[in-house]
Amino acid sequence: MKTVDITEHKLFFRHIRIVYFSGHPKSRDEGNGMMIWERRMMASIENNQDEALQIRHMKVDLYESKKGRALRLRDDDNTYLIIFQRPNILETWHTRAQQVEKSSHVDASDEQLTLIPEQILSNEAQIQILNLRRNSLISRPPTEKSMAPIGYIDDLYRVHSLQVIDLSANQILSFPIQLTLLSHLRQLNLSSNYISLVPNECSNMRRLQFLNLSNNQLDSLPDSIRDLLNLQVLDISFNQFSQIPNCIHYLPLDMWRLAGNNIESIKSIAELTVEKIDLRRNVLSTSFRLEFTNVTHLDLRDNSMIATIHLTNLRFLKFWTLLSSCLFLITSRLYPCLSITFRTYPIGFQTAQTYLFYE
């Protein structure tokens, strides 16, 4: 067992001269002499040889040693006891070390990145949540012959532990097909890019629960998406769809997020369980009919061509939002607790009125 004794600024015990958090300092905590470092590890210098202790891979707790209360770091091979002169510094280090031990979240958003840093791709920290939004990252160009992992988005397949990835607002021109190799992936955000095609291989992401493809250039989805049986949220709003993709009829989605497309009508091709549909800012035809009986929430705002809406089959409808500037003919009997919100937009104002109808 190695015992290390730390003072507030220096460390003296046997051959070890100093212990510090490795990396570049970001800020200093006033009053206790500690620095906050970017890298999540501890390094000890002994006889001019560096030894890095990967705290993220060690168990951290407090230990009552013969020399007093100590911070104990353990891995499969060694145990380190770090003794501080001041109890409050011990508590601070203990808290920070626990945070490092449990942390598997990397936030590299808004860093003006054009390539993914090697520290992320090496995955020494077993990253589970990765935030890379609002950078300038790209997929591997088709003309790129070398497959060396130099930092393209495709290279993230090497980080096998990833469960959540946010790549929104980058410079992605095509769906990064290599991401479909990540077997643990649960959430993927590719919104606000320039993607025009989703590959069939996306069906390989069998654990995927959340997929955000909004604000891209899509006009279709492959039928293979219907194999994503765990998918609960699919956002394809603000794309270029002229009709509802067939595949989403077979998915257990909580809501159809279809706003901001070029959809003219909706046709049912399978029995549906979806209860909420967002069709804002489309080009729905003048006479609109929805054949889905289970719908409880329907948003039709900003569809200026609608003149007639038929509610014949919507016997469970509870909330309906639409523009009052249109002429409506309701051809069905209104059911209990149907809330219809009429929204108008005069210059400089936004008003809304809600009406409740009962049998």
From TrEMBL:
Record keyword Repeat present: yes
Source organism of the structure: Caenorhabditis tropicalis
Protein origin, superkingdom: Eukaryota
InterPro entries: Leu-rich_rpt, Leu-rich_rpt_typical-subtyp, LRR_dom_sf, LRR_domain-containing
GO cellular component labels: cytoplasm
SUPFAM superfamilies attached to this UniProt entry: L domain-like
UniProtKB keywords: Leucine-rich repeat, Repeat
Protein's UniProt name: Leucine Rich repeat-containing domain protein
